[in-house]
Amino acid sequence: SFFKYFNNFFIYSINCLFYCVISDSSNSYFHLVGCTNFNGYMGERFNDTYTSEKIFKPYLSWQIPIFFGEAGLYKTLDKLGFDTFSDTFDLSFDNEPNDLKRFELQYQNVLKIAKLSRTEVHSMYRDRFERIENNFKQLERLSDGYVESFKKMLV
After folding, report:
1. Phi and psi angles of residue 58, each rounded to the nearest 5 degrees, phi first
2. CA atoms within 13 Å, Cβ hemisphere of 82
3. Helix 118-127 to helix 129-154 angle, to the nearest 10 degrees?
4. 20 to 30 A from 32, CA-CA: which of 55, 86, 122, 147?
């Protein structure tokens, strides 16, 4: 049936993406993500925050994400159930409407990590590993829900 084919295709696609992503980024604890629409969708602001596949790659790769995206992105990720590591990073920039200022404020978080020793970075990751794992599991739950929603739309 179509749904059996769709499920197999979707699982195959996710597995391919998983192995490609992991092999390319397994040597990093952090993932810097430059979002597609950092300065808003086509220069206009909408109430909904746009997310793309780039947003989910760090979760799939078991990394701590640092997003350079539009205002409100971290708030949206919180609503989706992801840990945004607000105890690790200063996320006060998330509501900043000025794109350049928001970028500069987020860049301070990158500089903070860059000043850490390898041992400190490793400890930071290890201390947050359970939360990183939970982000991966949340991505799995969301993708399972997406498949079910897609099936319902087709019926």
Report:
1. -60, -35
2. 25
3. 50
4. 147
CA dihedral defined by 72, 78, 83, 85, rounded to 10 degrees? Answer: 40
Helices 53-60 & 129-154, crossing angle to 10 degrees?
Answer: 130
With vertex at residue 12, the alpha carbon angle to CA 10 and CA 18, rounded to the nearest 5 degrees, is: 100
User: pLDDT digits over 45-99, tens only?
Assistant: 445 565 667 788 899 999 999 999 888 999 999 999 999 999 999 999 999 989 8
pLDDT by residue (tens digit) across 139-148?
A: 988 888 766 7
Tokens matching residue 89: 């990073």
Measured from the Cβ of residue 106, the count of other Cβ atoms closer than 10 Å reads 21
Chain centroid to CA 85: how far? 12
Considering the entire predicted model, what is its pTM? 0.72
